[in-house]
Amino acid sequence: MKYGPSQNLIIQGTVANHGDATANMINVIATLYDKDGNIVGVSKTNTEPDYLRANDESVFVIAVLDESESHEIVSYSLTAESEEYTACLLYTSDAADE
Q1: Which of these, 10, 42, 9, lies nearest to 27 by C-alpha position?
Q2: Beta strand pairing status for 39-46 and 9-16?
Q3: Nearest to 31 by CA among 90, 86, 83, 84
């Protein structure tokens, strides 16, 4: 988790397809939490390309454009889903991780 030049929050990472089939229309969803564990926002992005063959990886970037919301966020969780695969938790941050 880092801040961009306009003080918006940027989350970047890699999503991988560990399945046997190509995953299409992949979404990565960030659920954003404040210091009390309350959800303060949800942001989503699609991977480029929008498919991953078995054992492939793709980089993603999620930008939280609301500056006031960005400064409330102390942790987040990431979930990935596609047409072929149900949502799975990728990562959960902790304020201590940052």
Answers
A1: 42
A2: unpaired
A3: 90
Note the maximum CA span of the chain. 42
Give the pair of three-digit tokens for residue 30: 């960030």
Residue 31 corresponds to which amino acid?
T
What's the token pair of residue 73?
């966020």
Segment 51-94, tens digit of pLDDT: 999 999 999 999 887 766 667 888 999 999 999 988 767 677 77
- Residue 65: count other Cβ atoms within 10 Å of its Cβ: 11
Contacts 24+ apart (CB under 8 A), 93-97: 93/1, 95/35
